[in-house]
Hints:
mainly beta; globular
Amino acid sequence: MARPPYDPWVREILRCPVGLHELVDTQDEQGAPALECAQDCGAPGQRRRYPVTDGIPVLLADEAVVVPATGS
């Protein structure tokens, strides 16, 4: 999976706007890059996944998709 090349300082400050968790690289069902909460967010076993559009993370709570935690 190709991930956008963020500087290390940017990776340090990217956080979920809902749970303030660290975000990790993942991909959506279509294989597009996305960022996902590293911890449960909202309820046990659930995480929020945010799209990355043209290399820019869309960190808006309304744009997030709640997905089951995969244990990563």
